[in-house]
Predict the 3D structure of the following.
Amino acid sequence: MDVSTQRLREMRGLAPHAEYVVSTARNGLGEQPGSGCTPRGWHVIRARIGDGLPLTAILRGRRWTGACYHPEEVADQPRQDWILGRILWLSGCESGVNRGGRQDTQRRYIYIHGTADTEHLGQPVSAGCVRMAPEAICALFARCAVATPVFIGSRHPLSFPAPRRP
């Protein structure tokens, strides 16, 4: 994921397969809890949440509320950071950077997830997670397994991590 261009590239080996517009944190990159930053470095998908749910299913606490997002029904909640459709929960791979201690990505509940705020995709406006259009997260979700590696940074990685289970 290239934070400088707000793009997530789905790779097949060394070749790009698909590219998605995303929104990362308005506060930039960082690993500290409560910072509102998107964590850097290598991660893996720890859990896939929402398989089979409607595209606009509203998720809270990683569970479906039973409701779906309809703009006219939630107009009184303009600041709500809606998590829609699917969640890819990330776990850091780099001890002391994004894994373990207070900077642990998984313990910070950092996700790649669907958003209702598609108007601001391509701009860093999230509270730390990586936001995608509901259709895009559903497409990506269908092709990602647990333990799929994810890199977050402002330039391409120089190497790939050794495989590990979340």
